[in-house]
Amino acid sequence: MNMESKNRLATLLCGSLLLAMVGCASQKAPATADVAVSKAAVENAVSAGASDLAPEEISAARAKMQRASAALAAKDYTLARDLANQAQADAKLAQSKANSAKATAASNALQEDLRVLREEVDRAK
């Protein structure tokens, strides 16, 4: 398990623990927890390279996080929770796109290396 995966797992576990601890005692607590978990999801996407590899998706996630934070400050907990969940979904999409782009680039590099090796083998014959 690489460090990035460990960080993601730790963030998700902390977010889940936070949600379990606050329970459903009030509307504020779940909304606050949702915003915190979504912020972590955005940070994870950024650390996965989403800023460069999925800029539209991460921008949408950031914008929704800002709106969720504003709604939380305005004590509109339902809107804050909804926007936080949307931001989390956008962040996960951005992270997936970034990971896919990295995998595609690695695959293309390997294919190019294989092509060069084949050319060298053919020349040696």
What does this structure look like?
- Residues 1-25 form the signal peptide.
- Residues 34-109 form the DUF4398 domain.
- Keywords: Coiled coil, Signal.
- It comes from Massilia polaris.
- InterPro entries: DUF4398 (IPR025511).
- The chain is elongated, with a radius of gyration of 20 Å.
- The model has no long low-confidence stretch (mean pLDDT 86).
- It is 89% helix and 0% strand.
- The chain has one domain.
- It contains 5 helices and no strands.
- By secondary structure, the protein is an all-alpha fold.
- It has helices spanning 3-22, 28-47, 50-53, 55-73, 77-124.
- Helix 2 (28-47) packs antiparallel against helix 4 (55-73).
Please name the defining characteristics of this protein:
125 residues; mainly alpha; coiled coil; signal; DUF4398; DUF4398 domain-containing protein
Query: Mean pLDDT, rounded to whole units?
Result: 86
Low-confidence stretches: none
Structurally, the number of domains stands at 1
The strand count comes to: 0
Instruction: Please summarize the sheet with the most strands.
Output: none
The number of helices is 5
Order of helices and strands: HHHHH
Helix content range: over 70%
Overall shape: it is elongated
**Beta-strand percentage range:** under 5%
**Rg from Cα:** 20 Å
Give the CA-CA distance, first to last residue: 43 Å
Q: SS-based structural class?
A: mainly alpha
